[in-house]
Amino acid sequence: MASIINVALESTAVQYTVRIYSGSGGSTDPSGALTVTPDTQLTVTAIPYSGYVFDRWTYKGQDAGSANPQTFLIDRDAITILASFKEEVTPPPNGEPPTEWPVQKQVPFTGRMAPGWALEATDSTPIKNVDLTRILGGRVDYALRYESGILPGMMVYIYWNDELMASERLSNVGQTATGTFELGTARIRATNTLAIKMVQGPLGYNVCSFDCPTILGFTEEPDQPPTGEDWLDWLKKNAWWIAIGAGTVIIGIALISARPPFVIYQPPGKGG
Q1: 19 to each of 25, 36, 130, how far by Cα in Å?
Q2: pLDDT-based confidence at 62, cuts 50/70/90?
Q3: % of the chain residues with pLDDT over 70
Q4: Distances in Å between the alpha carbon of 123 and those of 56, 198, 209, 222?
Q5: Within 10 A of 12 (CB to CB), how many other CB atoms are there?
Q6: Least confident among 50-54, 72-76, 119-123, 137-141
Q7: Domain Bacterial repeat, which positions (predicted)?
Q8: Would you list the DSSP string of 28-84?
Q9: How many structural domains comprise the chain?
């Protein structure tokens, strides 16, 4: 008679991961990566550092307002929450709001990302030759468009000097997302980097176009206007692909040169 073995099966509870980020100028409580049960009501508090104030929340790639603390519904896995801060502005003694920047300079940054079968694609541009003696602040406006794709869904992250400033989720072809983030003088250097990263599922073959101009404000006309990517920057960024292309051409020329010459043999006395 066969023996019967009883096996105790333990049910595995579903867990969602949520990641809480904070931009420069503050922190959050809680922060970092958390694991929670589905449909958890998670309350997060933004804590600005001295000289900064809390600006807004970004939840699932969308603006979630400026209530602080804020409660978020964790209803799916891999949710990202971003707390943004901005420098505190002290109004003039007469109580009037600060005036507009007397001089504004714009540095364009446009392009498209198409990682194909890969998980992500990135693009970046320098924002350089910034006159720090005249700078008052800056702003980045962005417009994203989901152009095409096979497996729908992507996340787009925008960084200023390696600091995450904004994130957007694009779920359907044709969808657009727009936004802006401020740049206080503490964030602006003589040479900066504005970068954009697109993340998708494997074999997604999605395409995202973007337009992310940087607007810088100055007290007066700078001696040299700020500039973006020039031909030398482009060569440096694409050096790897240029090397591959040059190597392919050299190999092709070598293979052609190595072929034996084509000769037509004509027997004696058969000349025309």
Answers
A1: 18, 11, 34
A2: confident
A3: 76
A4: 26, 9, 11, 28
A5: 6
A6: 50-54
A7: 16-87
A8: EES-EEEEE-TTEEEEEEEEEPTTEEEEEEEETTEE----SSEEEEE-SSSEEEEEE
A9: 2
Q: Which of 39, 57, 88 is the endpoint of a domain?
A: 88
DSSP class of residue 107 equals: E
What's the rounded Cα separation, in Å, for the pair 184 and 197? Answer: 23
The DSSP result for 163-203, as a single string, is: EEEEEEEE-STT-EEEEEEEE-GGG--SSEEEEEEEEE-TT
- Tell whether 244 is covered by a domain: no
What is the spatial distance between Cα 202 and Cα 8, in angstroms, rounded to a whole number?
Answer: 37
pTM, two decimals, is 0.57
- Tell me, yes or no, whether 120 and 200 share the same domain: yes
* Contact yes or no for 164/58 (Cβ under 8 A): no
Tens digits of per-residue pLDDT, 259-270? 665 555 556 665
Token pair, residue 58, equals: 């970004």
Name the domain boundary from 88, 113, 133.
Answer: 88
Neighbouring C-beta atoms of residue 257, cutoff 10 Å: 7
Look at the alpha carbons of 47, 49, 51, 56 in this order and tell me if their dihedral is positive or negative. Answer: negative
Q: Specify which of 59-68, 148-157, 229-238 reaches the highest per-range mean pLDDT.
A: 148-157
Structure tokens at 253: 């020329």
What's the confidence (pLDDT) of residue 56?
A: 87
* Average pLDDT value for the chain: 83
Boundaries of domain holding 44 = 13-88
- Give the DSSP letter of residue 255: H
